[in-house]
């Protein structure tokens, strides 16, 4: 039994954001929704929240709008061997344990899946940009090698993937590539494999795929990410989502709110139909993190310039298998000086340094 299960209890009226904090801060990857008498009314997982975001729910709304009200449970007296068999059969990582009054009295977890396995899937990191908006810092240093805390940005990114179980890395370079190669070498110091592809001229995020060797692990999707993004995205969940949905490509997206600073008027002719004062519009924006399957990689010719959105548009209508994966975890694209300064303070509390 997991003895920190009390830390994952939450009230139905608490917010989705509150559930997220529990899921992200605790190792059990689930929040248990209980009433005032500790009766279980639902559970919330990372996937439940992502599905809620796709339904345009906001993080401030009640967790009751995303919780699973019919979770799999077991009695506290159930033998652990039976619980393991149940979890493996149902493909779940945890089971709330109830007493005879259906009150939550424990949480059993399947320890095996909670340990990160090793993934042979390639990780492709874009590290060739000029970083012009961060000058003069990038006059003598490529942006991915700028230090956040006491490590280069790219090292923090690579270590995040290593922690998730990934061991095969490819890095695309263009601007000052020698600094990147000299620092990371072949990855032996980090216990992984690092190879490089060099863009003689900028090819765009999609075009760099055409430089990858043709002997990539057969049939395995590749995770692709800009080398200047700090994030706590669960790469294991992202890859599982892509594979489970048989996607050609999966784009990580992030919710972005924009408040129109004026009252918006809707009318017919000269008649006002409705008025909304300073409405907030919500969009999904590209987070610069992708999973791409071999068919997409193989569609890019060598030295062909193309950006990822354009490449994905070409595949969108072929099989309708270009999907989006909403992320709610920490994410910061270090593109401007204020982003760089923010990252310096954020890194201390993220557990990434």
TrEMBL record:
<feature type="domain" description="CBS">
    <location>
        <begin position="67"/>
        <end position="123"/>
    </location>
</feature>
<dbReference type="InterPro" id="IPR000644">
    <property type="entry name" value="CBS_dom"/>
</dbReference>
<dbReference type="InterPro" id="IPR029044">
    <property type="entry name" value="Nucleotide-diphossugar_trans"/>
</dbReference>
<dbReference type="Pfam" id="PF00571">
    <property type="entry name" value="CBS"/>
</dbReference>
<feature type="domain" description="CBS">
    <location>
        <begin position="1"/>
        <end position="59"/>
    </location>
</feature>
<dbReference type="InterPro" id="IPR046342">
    <property type="entry name" value="CBS_dom_sf"/>
</dbReference>
<dbReference type="InterPro" id="IPR005835">
    <property type="entry name" value="NTP_transferase_dom"/>
</dbReference>
<dbReference type="Pfam" id="PF00483">
    <property type="entry name" value="NTP_transferase"/>
</dbReference>
<protein>
    <submittedName>
        <fullName>CBS domain-containing protein</fullName>
    </submittedName>
</protein>
<keyword id="KW-0129">CBS domain</keyword>
<dbReference type="InterPro" id="IPR050486">
    <property type="entry name" value="Mannose-1P_guanyltransferase"/>
</dbReference>
């Amino acid at each position: 039994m997991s003895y920190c299960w009390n830390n994952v209890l939450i009230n139905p009226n608490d917010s989705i954001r509150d559930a997220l904090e529990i899921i992200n801060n605790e190792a059990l990857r689930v929040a248990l929704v209980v009433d005032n008498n500790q009766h279980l009314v639902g559970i919330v997982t990372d996937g439940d929240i992502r599905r809620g975001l796709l339904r345009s729910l906001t993080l401030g709304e009640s967790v009751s709008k995303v919780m699973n009200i019919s979770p799999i449970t077991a009695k506290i007296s159930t033998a652990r061997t039976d619980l393991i068999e149940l979890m493996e059969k149902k493909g779940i990582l945890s089971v709330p344990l109830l007493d005879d009054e259906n009150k939550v009295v424990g949480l059993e977890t399947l320890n095996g899946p909670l340990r990160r396995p090793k993934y042979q899937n390639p990780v492709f990191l874009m590290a060739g940009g000029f970083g012009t908006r961060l000058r003069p810092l990038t006059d003598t240093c490529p942006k991915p090698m700028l230090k956040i805390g006491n490590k280069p940005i790219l090292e923090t990114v690579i270590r995040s993937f290593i922690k998730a179980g990934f061991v095969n890395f490819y890095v695309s370079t263009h601007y000052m590539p020698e600094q990147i190669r000299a620092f990371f070498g072949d990855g032996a110091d980090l216990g992984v494999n690092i190879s490089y592809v060099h863009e003689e001229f900028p090819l765009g995020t999609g075009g760099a795929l055409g430089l990858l060797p043709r002997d990539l692990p057969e049939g395995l999707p590749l995770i692709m990410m800009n080398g200047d993004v700090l994030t706590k995205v669960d790469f294991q969940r992202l890859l599982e989502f892509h594979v489970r949905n048989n996607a050609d490509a999966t784009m990580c997206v992030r919710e972005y709110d924009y408040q129109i600073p004026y009252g918006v008027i809707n009318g017919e002719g000269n008649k006002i139909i409705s008025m909304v004062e300073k409405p907030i519009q919500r969009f999904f924006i590209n987070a610069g993190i992708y999973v791409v399957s071999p068919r997409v990689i193989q569609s890019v010719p060598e030295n062909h310039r193309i950006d990822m959105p354009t490449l994905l548009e070409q595949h969108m209508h072929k099989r309708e298998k270009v999907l989006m994966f909403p992320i709610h975890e920490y994410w910061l694209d270090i593109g401007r000086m204020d982003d760089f300064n923010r990252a310096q303070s954020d890194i201390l509390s993220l557990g990434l340094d």
